């Protein structure tokens, strides 16, 4: 058999015109089981699939619904992966932005309409420097720390740092044991205050007043004495007088008490505060009574010998420290607590008076 005969036995390849599309002879795929409860888009029929494949001369794509099963919970919500800006054209993207993509604040502009560089930083600095801002709090904390360090190294600097303000007050005494606690109390309550002490004597009562009435008369006398000898201390300047007295609350139960009187006639203010009492032995009172002459001028208001001098002699301590030696509470602390009460009452009255005017 020659080569020509062999070739003649090989069938010729069918042409497209004779057989049509090669996929037309392939059976359509069987329908897959449907696990989807609801379908958002209408299903595609088998005839449409064949028509599409015949027209495009390619295998028909298998449609898959984008819906997920009802019990399926994706880790990332569907909305997280969706773009908020359209990618079709720049013009359409300007109108399809979501609210989340918009800027939170509008940048500041100058007079000609240009955006000011660093406007966000400027806004933050303004807020930080405003009243109650973080920078102001840091500055106040730093100032407080510096003041504490200075007053620790030199306690006398506390008076200098807290002096000033709108309050000017005079104490009817030049003794530090009286002036120091009153100054500290008023500067604590008012923030800043100028408190000075001036010597003032009382010649209307005994050296050691007995009873509240005698102490009150002595305190009023000290205040009147200061106003009479100093023309600058007019009725608008508050003056505080301190007078210690003893009283018998019960038979043979004596206490030493300090009376504080604040007077400011221009506002019609007069405040009276008593300190905590310190027990006094009956023997010390009897000693002061026996030491007082019968013809003492102010015998009706008390004794000419103070309880402090008698207690200091018996306890072998200075006369300003006998309260601390007896009860453990120094006189300065007793006066400080009473002065804070006095300063608080005085501040409240000033606030009410200012509100009425």
Automatic annotation (TrEMBL):
Disordered as annotated region, ranges: 23-106
Location in the cell: Golgi apparatus
Top-level taxon in the UniProt lineage: Eukaryota
Ranges where the Non-canonical purine NTP phosphatase/PRRC1 domain occurs: 173-265
Principal localisation: Golgi
Pfam family, one: NTPase_I-T
Molecular function as annotated in GO: protein kinase A regulatory subunit binding
Gene Ontology cellular component list: Golgi apparatus
Alphabetical list of Gene3D superfamilies matching this protein: 3.90.950.10
UniProt keyword annotations, A-Z: Golgi apparatus
Biased segments, Low complexity type: 38-47
The family this protein is said to belong to: Belongs to the PRRC1 family.
Entry protein name: Non-canonical purine NTP phosphatase/PRRC1 domain-containing protein
Organism: Leptosia nina
């Amino acid at each position: 058999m020659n080569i020509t005969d062999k070739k003649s036995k090989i069938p010729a390849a069918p042409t497209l015109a004779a057989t049509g599309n090669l996929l037309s002879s392939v059976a359509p795929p069987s329908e897959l089981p449907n696990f989807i409860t609801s379908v958002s888009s209408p299903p595609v029929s088998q005839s449409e699939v064949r028509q599409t494949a015949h027209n495009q001369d390619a295998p028909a794509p298998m449609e898959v619904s984008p819906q997920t099963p009802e019990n399926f919970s994706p880790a990332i919500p569907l909305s997280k992966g969706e773009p908020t800006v359209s990618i079709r054209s720049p013009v359409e993207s300007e109108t399809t932005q979501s609210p989340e993509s918009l800027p939170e604040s509008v940048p500041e502009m100058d007079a000609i309409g240009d955006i000011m560089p660093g406007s966000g930083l400027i806004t933050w600095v303004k807020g930080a420097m405003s009243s109650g801002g973080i920078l102001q709090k840091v500055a106040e904390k730093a100032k407080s720390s510096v003041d504490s360090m200075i007053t620790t190294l030199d306690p006398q600097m506390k008076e200098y740092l807290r002096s000033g303000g709108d309050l000017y007050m005079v104490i009817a005494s030049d003794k530090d044991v009286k002036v120091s606690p009153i100054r500290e109390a008023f500067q604590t309550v008012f923030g800043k205050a100028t408190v000075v002490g001036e010597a003032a004597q009382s010649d209307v009562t005994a050296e050691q007043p007995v009873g509240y009435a005698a102490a009150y008369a002595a305190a009023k006398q000290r205040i009147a004495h200061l106003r009479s000898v100093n023309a600058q201390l007019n009725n608008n300047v508050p003056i505080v007088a301190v007078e210690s007295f003893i009283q018998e609350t019960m038979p043979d139960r004596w206490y030493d008490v300090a009376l504080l009187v604040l007077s400011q006639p221009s506002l019609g203010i007069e405040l009276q505060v008593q300190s905590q009492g310190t027990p006094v032995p009956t023997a010390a009172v009897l000693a002061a009574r026996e030491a007082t002459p019968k013809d003492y001028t102010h015998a009706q208001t008390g004794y000419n010998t103070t309880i402090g001098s008698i207690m200091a002699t018996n306890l072998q301590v200075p006369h300003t420290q006998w309260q601390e030696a007896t009860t453990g509470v120094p006189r300065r602390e007793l006066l400080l607590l009473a002065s804070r009460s006095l300063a608080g009452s005085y501040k409240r009255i000033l606030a009410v008076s200012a509100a009425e005017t």
